[in-house]
Write a structure and sequence with these properties.
alpha+beta
């Protein structure tokens, strides 16, 4: 990074100097051209005045006075009457010269072109004399290019000097620029005093650090909860088995103890299965392919599976709605709907009711599960989807929940881009809705 910034700064300076020289050369050229034109015109007027006063003999007297300026006299037929650099007889007809034509027409004329006689680029200025002839004064423009070229060594020396100075200044400035970045505290990004342009980057880094910390705390909490939840049924199984082993159970009570061991074992198996499911969803290692699933038919089948459990509490379950196709993973969708419906039965009152609706809405497929159960206080609505979180911890064992059901629902919803909402009032019941995106709906 340091070398890149240094190279960029030196390159920019070099290009700037080259452009500066090119612009300066053009400015000097144009400036000198303007001065040359003014000098030639002024000189032409002086000679015009002298010739008008003294006659053409004045031209013969000024021979070899200034060899850098060429003076020519041309009559209306284009014949050269006088020239300071060549014998008049050797010169061709000048009637077609632009500056000569303009002088005869308007009194004066000018032109810039390569001289056929001298082989150099010349500036020509012609002016009409009182005797009807044209006086033409010209001067070579090579001096203008020489001026630009002569400036090059000076500019080149200055450029080399400036590049050397700029190199060390750029090196110092680069070190100063990247110093805050090199010494940045990545553990506390927002505590760094750096450039404003890096603020979004530091804020994103701070968010990532917080997310990592939150994930780390969640894993610690999850490990602690898993250990506790696994230990509880294992302790019960071990205790009942030890009592039976020591012969402390009457033969008539053996079926009762066996039933308790069986229930705890089933609870342990269910807990392990839920943990495995949740781990797969966390790691996005679900390998099942998505397919078209009829949510209404799936809901009816799930309610049928829960009917024996509902019958034990005399709970009436009903399914309404219409067939609606959703593009998703059948097994995950089944677990999501099953867990929500199972909770509606578990946390319902004796003789209660569970109403399930599945169908299509303007926003896409939707499933709504309502019950007349104990309800959930508002302050717990957001947390019920956390792992092992229970609203009523004292009765959690009685109702047989693992605390992972709604967490599986949440992860399954994320996997399908769905939104889960909770509306519950203590003592009046709970309604949980799962709204799937419209693009998941298949006609």
């Amino acid at each position: 990074m340091r070398k890149g910034i240094l190279r960029s700064m030196v390159l920019v300076l070099t290009i700037t100097l080259l452009l500066f020289y090119a612009i300066l050369a053009v400015i000097l050229y144009q400036r000198n051209l303007t001065l040359l034109e003014e000098e030639v015109r002024q000189e032409a007027r002086y000679i015009q005045t002298a010739v008008n006063i003294s006659g053409s003999e004045y031209l013969a007297e000024m021979n070899e006075v200034d060899l850098s300026t060429r003076v020519t006299q041309v009559d209306r037929d284009g014949e050269v009457l006088y020239d300071t650099m060549r014998d008049e007889s050797e010169l061709e007809d000048h009637s077609q010269r632009n500056e000569v034509q303009e002088a005869f027409e308007r009194g004066e004329g000018e032109d810039v072109r390569m001289s056929d006689t001298l082989g150099t680029e010349m500036y020509y200025y012609a002016i009409l004399l009182d005797d009807g002839t044209v006086l033409r004064v010209s001067r070579s423009m090579d001096s203008l290019m020489h001026t630009a070229v002569n400036v090059l060594p000076v500019i080149g020396a200055l450029a080399v000097l400036m590049i050397v100075v700029a190199y060390f200044l750029a090196k110092w400035q680069t070190r100063k620029l990247i110093h805050p970045i090199i010494n940045m505290d990545l553990e506390h990004p927002l505590d760094n005093v750096v450039y404003e342009e890096l603020t979004p980057f530091l804020e994103a880094m701070d968010r990532q650090n917080k997310e990592k910390e939150a994930v780390s705390n969640m894993r610690k909490e999850f490990s602690a909860n898993v250990s506790h939840e696994l230990k509880t049924p294992l302790t019960s199984i071990s205790g009942y088995a030890e009592i039976m082993k020591n012969g402390m159970v009457r033969p008539a009570d053996i079926p009762v103890f066996a039933e308790r061991i069986y229930k705890e074992a089933r609870r342990l198996i269910t807990l392990v299965e839920d943990i495995i499911k949740l781990s797969k969803l966390d790691e996005e290692s679900v390998e099942l392919e998505k397919e078209e699933v009829n949510l209404y038919e799936m809901t009816r089948e799930i309610v049928s599976r829960l009917s024996p459990q509902a019958a034990q509490k005399n709970i009436r379950m009903e399914v309404t709605g219409e067939p609606v196709m959703c593009f998703g993973i059948r097994q995950i969708l089944d677990e999501m709907i099953y867990n929500v419906c199972e909770n509606a039965v578990k946390y319902n009152n004796e003789g209660g009711r569970v109403s399930v609706w599945a169908g299509s809405t303007l926003d896409g497929p939707k499933i709504s599960v309502s019950d007349t159960g104990i309800g959930i206080p508002k302050e717990h609505h957001e947390r019920i989807f956390e792992r092992f979180y229970r609203v009523d911890k004292s009765h959690s064992k009685e109702r047989g929940g693992t605390g992972l059901g709604l967490s599986i629902v949440k992860h399954g919803a994320l996997l399908h881009g769905a939104k889960v909402t909770v509306d519950s009032v203590p003592g009046r019941g709970t309604r949980i809705e799962m709204q799937f995106p419209r693009e998941n709906q298949k006609n």
